[in-house]
Structures are given as structure tokens and as C-alpha cells.
Design a protein that fits this description.
The structure holds two protein chains of two kinds. By secondary structure, chain A is an alpha+beta fold. Chain A contains 17 helices and eleven strands. In chain A, strand 4 and strand 5 form a beta hairpin. In chain A, helix 2 packs antiparallel against helix 13, helix 9 crosses helix 17 and helix 16 runs antiparallel to helix 17. The radius of gyration of chain A is 25 Å and the shape is globular. Chain A starts with a helix and ends with a helix. Chain B folds into two domains: 57 residues; 242 residues, Orthogonal Bundle (MetI-like fold), CATH 1.10.3720. Chain B is 71% helix and 1% strand. Chain B is built from 16 helices and two strands. Chain B is globular and about 75 Å long. Classes of the chains: A alpha+beta, B mainly alpha. At the A-B interface, helix 1, helix 3, helix 10 and helix 16 of A face helix 2 of B.
Chain lengths: 431, 319
């Protein structure tokens, strides 16, 4: 090779070196990407907003954001959403990397967990500065976001645990749920449904942490105390042993069947006649299933107390955000603006503030039923207060559901399942 | 990689004693060139593989939830692991999967390779057709298809029921769901099959002709000629497929609708590792699990290498 050759080679070498430097550079920028100050230097700032939910909620939220950006042209909102489980996995990773979204949807189970990890912005100072109003919240639900004297989340809508029933099946079986009915009456009704309609009455109540919480509240206990579990092995053994017996008796849907139907609900597929869930989820059954679905009262122990309380999805800010003021203004707009209320409807629960509540009057039956349900519960004077869950509550909830499932298939003995749950809960709450 | 760099090109007389300075310089420059060409790979290796691996080795001995600074706890993660019933379950599930799935897959691959090794019409088509599942089998969409195939009242359930063997859908049944994952891996027998085919083509025809003259039947010919002659290829496939099976994740995660259930029946090792690390944020524990897996795979590999003295026949050695 002559001179030409070596020149070419040098050029190639330079290109190669350049390419690998570029790789390193890319990796470096990817590492700190998204953390930028957002926006060109004309005073426009960009905030990132993330939530969990489905396509339908995404559409509504995007339209709400358009309203917000019209009013605040200097604030741009970048959005991101996943389903519930994926959302928290991604959030945890982002937060650990020091790069959580500026503002995000939150729930009571995560307040303490992320407060302890210094991820959540205390919005108190923004309230004091007048960027965020805590006025006009219905039934005092703004208290849900207060933990240890800090304001960690602002409620967007209220919801409560409820019993969703397949109205056609209940009617054919001649069963009418009534406020204050007892567990005995409820399970008696399920048996009647099973005997006459040849369908299981419930889809697996014993694995739902929030329902067990209600049962415990009816008996003067609660699932969580401030820092641990509020019940003992004997309580849970009874709850699960009864559940297992009812699966065996056919009153509760075969867990194998429930497993395969996921992510569809066994109530919507006609494999069960009732299911306990949050009242704002009920719209889903009408979309998924062929029957008509209605809300029924939670069974009681003493004929009166249901143990129900108002829960809520919230909006929280990141402690690391560089734009706390814009975050506060955004949250304020999302919870108070009547236009946003009209767009969002009861998607995240019954609208939290009176401005939004009055701006939106549901016209469709399922949403009207939800509003009526919460009104009934409130009128019956049944609503208790909710305590913020201890850190690790989310892991405990997942373990409760999973181990209840193992137990119900008969793969794990009830006593072993209870022991395993307490051992896992101990680890989770200590982590 | 290193041999590529250090081997001198034929025209660089570096191995002679005392090459002229100019030549030496040129040799050094060529080494530099080699490293520069490798540099994208080296950068990637250091940043994306070596760095994280070192970090995870450290985390394995710490209590680390992604938010706190890692706290050194010595071997606690490892002792906790051995006491953890779910960890034991995940080892059991993975072992079952490896022990059932790998031999079945290789047997099928070898069987079909033997059929395809004979010249007949449409051979290329069959080869491609059998290979195709290996290309798509690892994808998430196939996982969804599998979930659908093995549910109540789906194809598999109906076929089974019509044969008077009614267990319902496998996906919801803790006793059966793992078999659907085994079926998924066995279905991807095309990759080892292609390697077997290449091995079979290498077996000299004279050996078969000579054996036939001596009166050896087809089974005898397979046992005494084919099997020893392809044993290096067989060894390679066993090794590769075993290591591969240990790392199963995607299919278990998708077929179980991300739960690795029901009743932890598809809780393969990596799935539990994922749950511990990314759902429960026990990164120290998850890192320790990863290193345990590495040790286990290394051990199995070592045993396989040791055993090959007894059954793998290398032609060079025989000559």
C-alpha cells in the first residue's frame, strides 16, 4: 500500500474513534436525558405529568391539558401513562434514578412509601403562596393527602369500595341486596344464586385487601395501623378458611377460571354474579360484559356499619422538580377548573371539588348510579376516616392477592398461606 | 477477540528477532488501529456490561432498595434466599423446566434433522418451515398466542376433551401451566435442528457404506456411526440449550399475564428475580439471586464439560 492507503487508513481510524466517542456521548446523554430544564429560553417551562390508566382516561386528560395550556401558554405539559402495575414499576425506577415526573397521579398506599424516600413535594408552601387552593373540597377529602403535617397529594375524585352485581342474575334468583345486610345474608344469597342459576355468586372476595380492611373495620380493627398490620394470624386464618370452603362449595368462582380470564373480569364474563371493587371502576363492566350491572351495599357484621370510607386518587409533585410553582398551578387547575371537571367526569372517582362536581352532571346510567351510591353511603352516615398506609403497603397488597390465590387453588394449605403472608408482610413493611 | 489483534498479519515480520524500527512502528500502529476499531465495542462492554456486573456483585452483599445507600450485610441475602420458600419454589420450577424441556427439544430437533438429512423433494421448504418458530418464538406476541391457545375452551382444551382427557385450560391450572411453557420451547426446536443438520452433513458417507457391507442395520448404523460422529454437535447443542433454558423469562411472564402464576406455578428463577428487584425494590437480594444463577449455570456447564470426556468423540483425537 502506498501513501494513499495510509491516508485512507488514518481517515478511517479517525472515523472509528469518532464513532465510539459518539457512542459514549450518547450513553451519557441518555443517562441524564429528560432531566433538562425544559423549554427554550423565553420563559416557557416544560413539566412532565404521568399517570396510570387506560386509553379512555388518556384522551380525557389530554383534552384537559389543552385547556390548561390555553390558560397558561408559558407552561408546556408532557404526558406519559401506563397501566397501574407498569406505572409504579417505571415510577420507582425513575424516582430511584432521581428523575421522576414533575407531577403524577398518586394513591394513599404510596404516600408514606415515597415520602420516606424523599420523593414527594410538600405542597404546603405552594398553598401558602397562593398557587394552589385547598378550598371547596367535598366532604373534607383534601385531608386524604395530608401525612404527618405535610401535604403530599391533592385529591382529584372520591371513590369507595362497593359491591358490583349482575342485576339480571340477582333478579332471576330473587335476591335483593339491602343497606345493612349481613355477611350471612350475603353468602346465603350467593348460595341461592349458585343453586338456582348454576353460577358462582362471587369472583374471589377473600383476596381483596381493601375489602378485608372493611371487614376488619366492622370489627373494630383495620388492615393497617400507622406502622404495621392491624390483625393477627387467627383473624386471617378464619377469613381465608371460609373463602377456601366457599370456593370448594362452588359459591365463589373457580380461581383457575378467574386466572385465565385476566385481564377480563369474571363478573363481566358471566362466571360470577358479583364482585367487590372501587365504585368508579364499575363503568368497565358495562363495557366488557353483556349483562346489566349495578351497585349494591357492602355487607355488614352488625347490621349497620359497613366500614366504608372515601378514598381518592391524587395528584402529587416531585420533590426534585425545578418548577414547583408551575406544578402547583397545574394541580390547582386540574382539580378546580369546571371545564376539566366536564371533560374528566367520574373517571377517577366523583369530582373532588364543588366547582367541578357542579359543572358535571352525568347523563348515563352507570355514572348516575355511582353518584347515587356515594350519596347513599354518605347519607347513611357510614363514612369513616382513612389512615395513610405504612411504607410497603403496595407490596403487602400484592402479596395478599397472590397468596390468597395460591390458597384458593388448594396449592397451599391455609395455615401455610397465612404464615407466608405474615412473613412477607413483615419483610415488606420493614424495607 | 484478542487473537484477532495480537496475531500478526503475514507481512509483518514481528516474530523475527530484531525487526527494523520502521516495521515495529507499523506493527504498533496496526495494534492501535485494531483497538480503535474495537473501541465502540469496548466502550459498550465497559459501560453496559462490565460496570453494571461489578456493581451488582457489590449490591449482592448489601441491603439496597434503590433509594437508600447500599448497606453492607455480608452474606445475609444468600442465607435469606435459602430460607425463602418462594426462592425454593422458583428453583424447583426452573429445574423442572430445564430437565423436561431441554431433552425433549433436542430429541425432536435430532429426529427431524435425521429425516431432513435425506435428500428428497421440497427439502428446503421443510427446513425453512421447521426453523421459522425459532425466529418468532421468543416474541411477546407469540406469548399472547400461547396464552390464548391454552385457555379454557381454546384449541388445546377442545382437542384434549374430544380425546376424553378433560383438564380444562392449562393457563389457569397450576399443575399444567408449566407444560405449556415447555411446549413453547420445544416448538422452537428449529435452531438446534439446523446445527444437527450441519453436523449430519459432515459424517463421511464411506462409513455408512462400509457398515452396510458389514451387515449393520439402520439402528446399529445410527448408534455406532451417526451418534459418535455428531457427538461434538450434540454436546454443543446440549450446552447451549441448557444455558438458554435456565434464563427463561419472557414466555413465563407473558403466558401468566405478568403474574408468574397461578399459585407461582410459572415462577421461574428470573421472574422471581424481576419481582424482587423491580416490584419490591429489593435490589440487593435480586443481585444476589443473579449471581447465584450465574454460579449454578457455571456449575452445570463445568459438569457438562467434564462429562464430555466420556461421550463426546472428536475426530482429530481418533486419528
Amino acid at each position: 500500500m502506498g501513501k494513499n492507503g495510509s491516508v485512507e487508513r488514518r481517515a478511517v481510524l479517525r472515523a472509528a474513534a469518532g464513532a465510539s466517542l459518539a457512542t459514549v456521548g450518547l450513553a451519557a446523554t441518555a443517562g441524564c436525558g429528560d432531566g433538562g430544564d425544559g423549554g427554550p429560553g423565553d420563559g416557557t417551562v416544560e413539566i412532565r405529568f404521568a399517570w396510570w390508566g387506560a386509553e379512555e382516561r388518556a384522551k380525557r386528560i389530554n383534552r384537559s391539558i389543552e385547556l390548561f395550556e390555553e390558560k397558561y401558554p408559558k407552561i408546556k405539559v408532557k404526558t406519559d401513562f401506563q397501566d397501574y402495575v407498569a406505572f409504579w414499576e417505571k415510577f420507582q425506577t425513575q424516582a430511584a434514578g432521581g428523575n421522576p415526573p414533575d407531577v403524577f397521579q398518586n394513591a394513599v398506599a404510596f404516600l408514606r412509601k415515597y415520602d420516606r424516600r424523599s420523593v414527594l413535594l410538600d405542597l404546603k408552601s405552594q398553598v401558602d403562596a397562593g398557587n394552589l387552593s385547598l378550598e371547596n373540597f367535598r366532604s373534607g377529602i383534601e385531608k386524604i393527602g395530608e401525612v404527618d403535617g405535610k401535604l403530599l397529594g391533592v385529591p382529584v375524585g372520591s371513590n369507595t369500595m362497593s359491591l358490583v352485581i349482575d342485576e339480571k342474575v340477582f333478579e332471576k334468583a330473587g335476591v335483593t341486596p339491602e343497606q345493612g345486610w349481613t355477611w350471612d345474608e350475603y353468602f346465603g344469597a350467593l348460595k341461592k344464586i349458585h343453586d338456582t342459576q348454576k353460577v358462582a355468586g362471587d369472583t374471589g372476595y377473600f383476596g381483596i385487601m381493601y375489602l378485608y380492611d372493611l371487614y376488619l373495620r366492622q370489627n373494630g380493627k383495620a388492615f393497617f395501623t400507622e406502622d404495621g398490620l392491624g390483625f393477627d394470624e387467627a383473624d386471617l386464618t378464619e377469613w381465608w378458611q371460609d373463602g377456601y370452603n366457599r370456593v370448594k362449595a362452588g359459591i365463589v368462582t373457580d380461581p383457575k377460571r378467574v386466572e385465565q380470564l385476566k385481564p377480563k373480569s369474571a363478573l363481566a364474563s358471566g362466571d360470577g354474579a358479583s364482585e367487590f371493587t372501587w365504585d368508579n371502576f364499575t363503568v368497565r363492566y358495562t363495557t366488557e360484559g353483556d349483562s346489566t350491572y349495578g351497585l349494591a351495599p357492602i355487607p355488614t357484621t352488625d347490621g349497620k356499619e359497613t366500614g366504608q370510607y372515601l378514598g381518592s386518587l391524587m395528584l402529587s409533585g416531585s420533590a426534585r422538580t425545578r418548577h414547583p410553582e408551575e406544578v402547583a398551578r397545574f394541580i390547582d387547575f386540574m382539580v378546580h377548573d369546571p371545564g376539566v371537571g366536564r371533560i374528566m367526569g367520574y373517571d377517577r372517582g366523583i369530582l373532588a371539588t364543588t366547582e367541578q362536581f357542579e359543572a358535571y352532571k352525568p347523563t348515563d346510567a352507570p355514572n348516575q348510579a355511582i353518584a347515587q351510591y356515594e350519596e347513599d353511603v354518605a347519607e347513611a352516615g357510614l363514612l369513616g376516616a382513612i389512615t395513610p398506609h405504612p411504607a410497603g403497603a403496595d407490596t403487602v397488597e400484592a402479596a395478599f392477592l397472590r397468596i390468597a390465590g395460591d390458597m384458593s387453588t388448594g396449592k397451599t394449605k391455609v395455615s401455610d398461606a397465612v404464615e407466608q403472608f405474615f412473613s412477607e408482610a413483615k419483610t415488606a413493611l420493614a424495607a | 477477540m484478542t487473537t484477532l489483534i495480537e496475531d500478526s498479519p503475514p507481512d509483518a515480520p514481528e516474530k523475527h528477532p530484531g525487526p527494523p524500527a520502521a516495521v515495529r512502528r507499523r506493527g504498533r500502529r496496526e495494534n492501535l488501529a485494531g483497538y480503535l476499531f474495537m473501541s465502540p465495542w469496548i466502550a459498550g462492554f465497559l459501560l453496559l456490561t462490565a460496570g453494571p456486573m461489578t456493581a451488582s456483585l457489590y449490591f449482592a452483599f448489601t441491603d439496597y432498595n434503590l433509594f437508600n445507600s447500599p448497606k453492607w450485610i455480608g452474606l445475609d441475602n444468600f442465607t435469606r434466599m435459602l430460607d425463602d420458600p418462594r426462592w425454593q419454589k422458583s428453583v424447583e420450577v426452573t429445574a423442572k423446566y430445564v430437565v423436561i424441556g431441554t431433552p425433549l427439544k433436542l430429541l425432536l430437533a435430532l429426529g427431524v434433522a435425521l429425516l431432513l438429512a435425506q435428500s428428497r423433494r421440497g427439502q428446503a421448504f421443510y427446513r425453512a418451515a421447521f426453523y421459522a418458530p425459532s425466529l418468532i418464538g421468543a416474541s411477546v406476541s407469540v406469548g399472547f398466542v400461547w396464552r390464548a391457545l391454552f385457555s379454557d375452551d381454546a384449541v388445546v382444551d377442545r382437542t384434549q376433551s374430544s380425546l376424553g382427557f378433560d383438564v380444562g385450560g392449562w393457563v389457569g391450572n397450576p399443575d399444567w401451566v408449566l407444560h405449556s411453557l415447555v411446549a413453547l420451547t420445544v416448538w422452537q426446536f428449529g435452531a438446534p435442528m439446523v446445527i444437527f443438520l450441519a453436523g449430519l452433513k459432515q459424517v463421511p458417507k464411506e462409513l455408512y457404506e462400509a457398515a452396510e457391507v458389514d451387515g449393520a442395520g439402520p439402528f446399529k448404523r445410527f448408534w455406532s456411526i451417526t451418534l459418535p460422529m455428531i457427538s461434538p454437535v450434540l454436546f454443543f447443542n446440549v450446552l447451549l440449550e441448557t444455558i438458554h433454558s435456565f434464563q427463561i423469562f419472557g414466555s413465563a411472564y407473558v403466558v401468566s399475564n405478568t403474574s408468574c402464576g397461578p399459585a407461582d406455578a410459572t415462577l421461574v428463577y428470573t421472574c422471581y428475580l424481576y419481582q424482587k428487584g423491580f416490584k419490591e425494590a429489593q435490589m440487593g437480594f435480586a443481585s444476589a439471586m443473579a449471581w447465584m444463577l450465574l454460579l449454578a449455570v457455571a456449575l452445570v456447564t463445568a459438569v457438562l464439560f467434564w462429562s464430555q470426556k466420556r461421550w463426546v468423540h472428536y475426530e482429530e483425537a481418533a486419528r
